[in-house]
Specification:
Structural class: alpha/beta
Shape: globular
Strand order of the largest sheet: 1-2-3-4
Low-confidence stretches: 267-277
Radius of gyration: 23 Å
Number of strands: 9
Number of helices: 8
Length: about 280
């Protein structure tokens, strides 16, 4: 609501309006599909006006596109599954899905997938009530689950993020590794090519010097499509383009309220920051 509704006056302006927008959009796409079907069968003489948005929604209704839905709250996750059920749509991965653990059996029954943060929550109202056990609870309930991050630092060591599920949830090695290998491949619909080591797949492999879920492990090789893209022993000492290894980085910055949405404007004090370029 802050971003799309009350904040900027963009339709819809309420949480209930979100459901109505989904239903209106799918209903419009259904009519669009029927109109094209009538034209191709000869029942309609003139072709419908081509509409890329409705083409995309029609492909969702036909099952050709997998929905990836930004989500947080359990009530809204249930709402969208009810909408999709009414329109015969079954392919969906909920992203972030911080309250997914509250509706894990319902997600599993629907066949929905979940792609979650390992342990991020409480950074805004919609995500006050999450838990580091989220991924483990979803996994134990039979939901195809993956670990993700939209932070460019954490995304570089998802194997550490996946390992947290062994501390929070006691997942096995295989269960934890699936969160960053075959499960995300399934969610993207490309598990026939990547996600596991099998004959005929693309040959995307990371090799470590210790167990990949260990905090002490160091990547040694990265192989993409069978080609070595990173070799720790042969590559130059520092291949990073933007980062100067000799740069002096302060340990903290004073918060001046210059964050993007000013949610902490007027609050004094210090906040720790990762250094970003």
């Amino acid at each position: 609501m802050r971003v799309h509704g009350e904040g900027r006056g963009i339709f819809p302006r309420t949480r209930m309006g979100i459901e109505q927008l989904f239903r209106m959009s799918f209903a419009e796409a259904k009519l669009y599909m029927e109109s094209w079907s009538d034209y191709k069968s000869g029942k309609q003489k003139t072709p419908p006006e081509y509409n890329l948005r409705l083409e995309t929604l029609a492909d969702i209704l036909k099952g050709d596109i997998i929905i990836h839905c930004h989500s947080y709250r359990a009530d809204e996750i249930l709402m969208l599954m009810n909408v999709l059920r009414d329109y015969g749509v079954s392919k969906i991965t909920f992203q972030h899905v911080n309250e997914g653990f509250k509706v894990a059996p319902e997600l599993a029954e629907f066949g929905a997938h979940a792609s979650v943060f390992s342990d991020w929550w409480a950074y805004k109202f919609e995500v006050y009530y999450s838990t580091a056990y989220n991924a483990a609870i979803l996994t134990k309930n039979g939901v195809v689950t993956s670990i993700n991050s939209d932070d460019r630092q954490l995304i570089r060591h998802l194997y550490h993020e996946a390992a947290k599920t062994q501390r929070y949830g006691d997942l096995s090695d295989n269960e934890a590794l699936k969160l960053i290998t075959i499960n995300p491949a399934i969610q993207l619909g490309i598990d026939d090519r990547v996600g596991s080591l099998e004959v005929g797949k693309d040959g995307d492999v990371a090799i470590f010097d210790k167990h990949p879920l260990s905090v002490y492990t160091i990547p040694q090789y990265t192989i993409v499509d069978g080609v070595v893209r990173f070799d720790r022993n042969e590559d130059p000492g520092d291949m990073r383009i933007e980062i100067d290894p000799n740069e002096s980085i302060p340990s903290f910055y004073e918060d001046c309220g210059h964050n993007h949405d000013n949610c902490m404007q007027g609050v004094s004090g210090y906040r720790l920051f990762r250094h970003r370029h």
